[in-house]
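User:
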Amino acid sequence: MEKLISLIRDIARVPSFSSYEENIHDLIFRFMESVPGANGERVPDNNLVFQVPGDDSRSPVALTAHLDKINHFGTSPPEALPFEQDEERLIGQLDNAVGLALCISLARLSAERSFPPLMLLFSEMEESFGLKNHPHLLKNEGKGLYHGMGAERISRYLIREHLLPSAVITLDTTPLFKGDPGVALYSGHWEFTGQQPTDRERERTDRVRDQFLSIDPDLFLSNNTNDYLHYGAELNRDGQTDIPSLALEPAIFPYHQKNEAVYLKDIARVHDIMVRWLERSGQGI
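Assistant: Predicted structure:
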């Protein structure tokens, strides 16, 4: 857990605000150097895709998180953003430092655990807050940018390069618990995207959802907007792929503000769920 907290702290301190995601690229590549066999590349414009070897008898699984933070600091942000830890929580700009750190931690474990091959998909412009509230703090005053563009670009790259995963799991943070601890599971992108899933996509999505619930029956089943919607919609747009897209998210509060807090026990819970699921995922998706 200490190594995971260290990852979160280092990522949370970087001012990688929306449209300036390149500020954290070097740190991510440096962290991934410790993952045996990992290969990464930048996908235009500010997205990163890594491939991590695993059990070749199993289909690859994609883990996703977004690179951008909301700029609550104006035109002169500090070089290192504030970060604190108390007995129960981490406090700082944790959306989505927590998700990025979880993905990297799981990739580091892949060499010693029975995981399928992994894809790490790290996206730009997941946040819409800046576009709505202070576009002058974004590059070119936000012109040409839109919420979810990174996940869409990565999805199109995966399709073009024939790198389709068996499932996509987004690791982000959720505001649904309003200050209480908890972990939420989202699984119905079509409820927001309006894209009708095939019977096969719905069946496979339900199977992955049930796999997570078999590991942790107390997961809170709900739905909300984040990159998991864009991966689900883009990767399944032609109706031929049927790739499940789900999100697993620890509680965060306050949300989209300075000094966001996430419970340590929720972070550990998500990490444990993902380790157990990745070890079992060859049982069928």
